[in-house]
């Protein structure tokens, strides 16, 4: 029994460490918020999967905001991504499983090769995120 549990945990750790280098072409189905999109990814000949993708390295304001400023920035970030990506084909690179499950993390490039995390940060609509503590958007600082 203990051996079986160890094997299951080892397999889980191995899966968690998996990374698909890509590029994986994907059709953007919709923009959820400033750092999450839904895509239909072409993963194999004749095989597609629809999934949530969180932009790797991005921290955009939340739509369920703590203040009016955060809500305003969250709407602007979502609108920015929608204008750039909605219905278009993107490339997913360095795809990882997300710590919350149900979605993946990936570098998302638009048709011109632009990295969406970098573009959001340049536009002042997201911050770089390394997995640490997230800072409030309500104090007005970037």
Features:
single chain, about 140 residues, alpha+beta, OB fold (Dihydrolipoamide Acetyltransferase, E2P), 5-stranded mixed β-barrel, two-stranded antiparallel sheet, 3 helices, globular
Please tell me about this protein's structure.
The protein is of the alpha+beta class and 142 residues long. It has a single domain, classed as OB fold (Dihydrolipoamide Acetyltransferase, E2P). It is 28% helix and 35% strand. The chain is built from 3 helices and 8 strands. The chain has helices at 2-16, 68-85, 116-122, and strands spanning 19-20, 24-33, 36-44, 47-55, 58-59, 89-97, 103-109, 127-128. The chain has a 5-stranded mixed β-barrel. The protein has a two-stranded antiparallel sheet with strand order 5-8. A hairpin with a 5-residue loop joins strand 6 (89-97) and strand 7 (103-109). The longest helix has 18 residues, at 68-85.
Whole-number mean pLDDT: 85
Across the major sheet, the strand order is: 2-3-4-7-6
Please give the largest β-sheet: 5 strands, mixed, barrel
Radius of gyration: 17 Å
Distance between the termini: 51 Å
What's a concise summary of this model?
The chain is an alpha+beta fold and 142 residues long.
Break the fold down into its secondary structure elements and pairings.
Elements: H1 2-16, E1 19-20, E2 24-33, E3 36-44, E4 47-55, E5 58-59, H2 68-85, E6 89-97, E7 103-109, H3 116-122, E8 127-128
Parallel strand pairs: 4-7
Antiparallel strand pairs: 1-6, 2-3, 2-6, 3-4, 5-8, 6-7
């Amino acid at each position: 029994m203990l051996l079986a549990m160890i094997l299951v945990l080892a397999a889980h750790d191995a899966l968690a460490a998996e990374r698909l280098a890509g590029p994986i072409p994907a059709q953007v189905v919709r923009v959820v918020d400033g750092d999450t999109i839904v895509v239909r990814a072409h993963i194999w000949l004749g095989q597609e999967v629809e999934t949530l993708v969180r932009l790797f390295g991005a921290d955009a304001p939340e739509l369920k905001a703590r203040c009016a400023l955060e809500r305003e920035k969250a709407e602007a970030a979502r609108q920015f991504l929608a204008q750039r990506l909605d219905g278009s084909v993107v490339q997913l690179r360095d795809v990882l499983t997300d710590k919350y499950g149900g979605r993946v993390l990936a570098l998302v490039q638009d048709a011109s090769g632009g990295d969406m995390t970098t573009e959001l940060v340049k536009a002042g609509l997201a911050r770089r995120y390394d997995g640490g503590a997230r800072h409030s958007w309500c104090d007005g600082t970037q």
